[in-house]
Design brief:
Pfam families: Cupin_8. This is Cupin-like domain-containing protein. InterPro entries: Cupin_8 (IPR041667). Belongs to the JARID1 histone demethylase family. This protein is α+β, with helices and mostly antiparallel strands. It has 3 domains: 30 residues, no CATH class; 30 residues, no CATH class; 37 residues, no CATH class. It contains 5 helices and 4 strands. The strands form 2 sheets. Strands 1-2 form a two-stranded parallel sheet. It has a two-stranded antiparallel sheet with strand order 3-4. A hairpin with a 7-residue loop joins strand 3 and strand 4. Helix 4 packs antiparallel against helix 5.
Length: 109
């Protein structure tokens, strides 16, 4: 990653320098988060190795088998909730109220 080499220590040093440059304090007890696929860890192991120790963990592939990941498409929302009024607020102008089908249609245009 990054393509320059130097390893984790160089990356950590660069990150600390960047934080210090912005005035964000660097924590000497900071721990790099491990990364695991959700299928590679049991709930018991997660509890024992990470939760009880307060250790960070990045879980990947969490929604791979979640039905909503494939079910919730723009067509789904337009078809099932098309008449539902939604409020669109981008903080740059007046709030817009329009039906879900119209809102979703804006993404397809």
């Amino acid at each position: 990653m990054g393509g320059r080499g130097g390893g984790a220590a160089a990356t950590e040093a660069t990150g600390v320098a960047a934080m210090e440059a912005t005035g964000v304090p660097a924590f000497s007890n900071a721990v790099a988060a491990e990364k695991k696929s959700v299928g590679d860890i049991t709930p018991e192991s997660f509890e024992r190795r990470y939760v009880t120790r307060g250790m960070p963990l990045v879980l990947t592939d969490v929604i791979a088998e979640w039905p909503a990941a494939s079910k919730w498409t723009l067509d789904y929302f337009a078809g099932v909730h098309g008449g539902l009024e939604v409020v669109v607020d981008d903080s740059t102008r007046e709030k817009l109220r329009l039906p879900m089908a119209e809102y979703v249609g804006n993404f397809e245009a």
